[in-house]
Amino acid sequence: MEWFEKYFEFDRYNTDMRTEVLAGLTTFMTMAYILFVNPAILSNAMGKAAFDSLVTVTALAAGITTIIMALYAKKPFALAPGMGLNGYFTYSVVLGMGYSWKVALAAVFVEGIIFIILSITKVRTAVINAIPMSQKYAVGAGIGLFLTFIGLNDVGLITAAVKNGILQFTGMNYGILATKAGILFFFGLFLTGILISMRIKGALLISILTTSILGWITGAAPWPHHLFSTPTISYTFMKLDFRGLLNVGAIGVIFAFLMVDFFDTLGTVTGLSAKAGYLTEDGKIPDSEKILLTDAIGTTLGAVLGTSTVTTYIESAAGIEEGGRTGMTALVTGLLFLGIGLFIAPLAGAIPSFATAPALVIVGYYMISAIKNVDFSDATEALPAFLVLMSIPFTYSISIGIGLGFISYTVLKIASGRWKEVHPLMYVLAAIFIAYFAYLAGVL
């Protein structure tokens, strides 16, 4: 116990073992859904026979990479196959473009190798340090709104879906208010709010467990049928097809994976670091090279195991909000992924969305507080920040929100004669995003 406290520097971050363990449990509970959602999405590309293997692979990729984050980077950030990236893998690359899932895995692997090189050469760190503080705060707040949007969508209170790259929002579903799921969602939301106002530690975790149990008792969600399952990875392990990448079209696939993962990770790491209080006065993230290298290793490892891009999860904010500040939080989360994901996955799958959705909404509430640090008296800072805040949830894309922010920030600074305030790398990033948007529009 004492070794853990010294290694993770509990005294430096004013934390203790109980707080870190609770934070790790909370992070796991808010993102355990990936154990079933990721296999459900990827099996549409790989076939239903891949489902059991994908459950194991998802748990392995999340658990191992999160433990690396814990022991190497010593940050309370959890990783897993990314939502959105698995959708692009399945619905765009495989079902849309016609590539086999084995070719898509090879593209993810190559993307991971490129990220490792960029991380080792500190290019990714240089990019993060070039971003102005107003954009960093806006990204954190925008991710908060995004989490809230996801939570409300998961429980069915709003109806939204991304089809062919377009967000289709059909408005409020008032009928959910008369269902058990809807009632339990609001119960969990208010229970969490009450516990937080009473400054009770573990509020999010207590809410998730209490709401789940009530859901099982009332029949709103099924009880776990059994606890144990046998892990297997035979269907997807080492099934990468590199020959299929030897054409011009495949280069575009790698580029798309690269762009989305790079800036989604960039936004997530920045937002989480701001929430955890890691940012220095000049906006830099301590040990960012270790964080980003871990993320890159996770992507490469995930491709070898047989899953889409592994990335740092915004749900880590739930554990941070519970007080998690060290790698001990990530270590607990990673071990739970290996323990529950590999052997008792049905229990994690029994946690209903109406129990985890309130946690996402509450975390969104906390994260949006970062926007108060933006100087709204300066339009060249505030307007780009607003565009980020607005576009991340409304486009269902962190990377698109970041792109609009970077472009508008650079343009406004130049137009107002304040171009010297812009870091040279921001000009490069703005140009890259202009090219990226042109690519998405089919112009390039």
- Helix count equals 20
Mean pLDDT: 86
Please estimate the helix content. 55-70%
Count of folded domains: 1
* Backbone shape: globular
- The parts where pLDDT drops under 50 for at least 5 residues are none
Strand order within the widest sheet?
1-4
State the end-to-end distance. Answer: 56 Å
**Total beta strands:** 4
Give the SSE order as H and E letters.
HHHHHEHHHHEEHHHHEHHHHHHH
Walkthrough of the structure:
The chain is mainly α. It has one domain (2-440). Helices cover 67% and strands 4% of the residues. The protein contains 20 helices and four strands. The strands form two sheets. Strands 1-4 form a two-stranded antiparallel sheet. The chain has a two-stranded antiparallel ribbon with strand order 2-3. A hairpin with a 2-residue loop joins β2 (158-163) and β3. α5 (51-73) runs antiparallel to α13. The longest helix is centred in the middle third of the chain and has 29 residues, at 248-276. The chain is globular, with a radius of gyration of 21 Å. 55% of the residues are buried.
